[in-house]
């Protein structure tokens, strides 16, 4: 005699399965895979020596903590995150870097590689000592922290514009520029995105103190004359703004630590590289800010 279950029992089993199976799967589920085309762009965290340190009424550690928590739980998780300079509040002290390292740990624990650039409020020597774990084994430019990140649809070049002789402006220097040209030329088949803390400054005084990149006149031709260089990403101004120059997209990241002007948005940028460009979404620290969720769909220049 065939065994048949009465409908009531079948219904009970189905209900039990419906509840139990997804639960069991959820528990056994691996972490969601990284999206190889997604990058979290952060800048100007300005972490002080204590978790309570404030500037312009902003507690910087609290703000980085909030951004880090958001980035760490992104699903799918990004291929990497970049903090584009001014990691530290003032001068890149050992205490500032120690606190910075502990604050960004959740991003690394979530399996998101973190790449750091250096700006005018950093210090190369103390960075290299305190955050050595963030440095690739290969250190091709003496006295500068540089990284190339190869993603599926773009390569990121994260540079170092810290200038020990200038507390405001920055400099890339001949050695870093020579290295950059060589690394760009070795990767002509993928769009290149170059990240520097400081903005371009074409009128930087020769031998004087620049506010932006002192050697812009040497740096910019390396980018604009290579058609596969599609975007230049920078911070420093604590302003979210998009522009274009010579067909290259200029992406100015907002600050995390504090805005210079209270009405300016603070936060980070969620980037998704496509076959033809990049889609950006601004994630404001204040979700009520008018610019929270601002989107841009940038198309790469030809070549
Ligand atoms: Zn800054």
Description of the structure:
Helix content is about 25%, strand content about 25%. With about 300 residues, it is α/β, with parallel strands linked by helices. The chain has one domain: Purple Acid Phosphatase, chain A, domain 2 (4-Layer Sandwich). It has a six-stranded mixed sheet with strand order 5-4-1-12-13-14. Helix 2 runs parallel beside helix 3. It is globular. It binds zinc ion. The site of zinc ion (ZN) has 6 residues, from loops.
Write the layout of secondary structure elements.
Elements: H1 7-28, E1 35-42, E2 54-55, E3 58-59, H2 60-72, E4 78-84, H3 94-109, E5 114-117, H4 124-130, E6 147-150, E7 155-158, H5 174-185, E8 192-195, H6 216-224, E9 229-234, E10 241-245, E11 248-252, E12 267-273, E13 277-284, E14 295-299
Parallel strand pairs: 1-4, 4-5, 7-8, 8-9, 9-11
Antiparallel strand pairs: 1-12, 2-3, 6-7, 10-11, 12-13, 13-14
Helix pairs in contact: 2-3
Residues 44, 46, 86, 236, 238, 255 line the site of zinc ion (ZN).
């Amino acid at each position: 005699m065939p065994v048949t279950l009465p409908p009531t029992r079948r219904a009970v089993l189905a209900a039990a399965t419906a509840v139990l199976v997804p639960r069991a799967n959820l528990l056994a589920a691996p972490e969601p895979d990284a999206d190889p085309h997604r990058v979290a762009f952060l800048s100007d965290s300005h972490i002080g020596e204590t978790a309570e340190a404030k500037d312009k009424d902003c507690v910087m550690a609290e703000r980085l903590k909030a951004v880090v928590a958001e980035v760490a739980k992104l699903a799918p998780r990004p291929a990497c995150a970049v903090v584009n300079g001014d990691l530290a509040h003032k001068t890149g002290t050992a205490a500032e870097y120690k606190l910075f390292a502990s604050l960004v740990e959740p991003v690394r624990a979530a399996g998101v590689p973190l790449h750091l650039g250096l700006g005018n409020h950093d210090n190369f020597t103390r960075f290299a000592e305190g955050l050595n774990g963030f440095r690739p084994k290969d250190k091709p430019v003496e006295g500068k922290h540089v990284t190339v990140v190869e993603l599926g649809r773009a390569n990121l070049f994260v540079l170092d514009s810290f200038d020990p002789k200038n507390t405001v402006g920055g400099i890339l220097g001949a050695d870093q520029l020579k290295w950059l040209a060589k690394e760009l030329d070795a990767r002509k088949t993928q769009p290149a995105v170059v990240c520097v803390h400081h903005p371009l400054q074409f009128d930087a005084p020769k031998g004087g103190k620049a506010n932006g990149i002192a050697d812009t006149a040497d740096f910019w031709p390396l980018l604009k004359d290579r058609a596969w260089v599609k975007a230049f990403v920078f911070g420093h101004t604590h302003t979210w703004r998009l522009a274009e120059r010579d067909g290259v997209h200029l992406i100015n990241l907002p600050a995390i630590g504090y805005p210079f002007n209270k009405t300016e948005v603070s936060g980070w940028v969620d980037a998704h590289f496509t076959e033809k460009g990049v889609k950006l979404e601004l994630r404001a620290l204040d979700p009520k800010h008018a610019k929270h969720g601002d989107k841009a769909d940038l198309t790469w220049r030809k070549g």
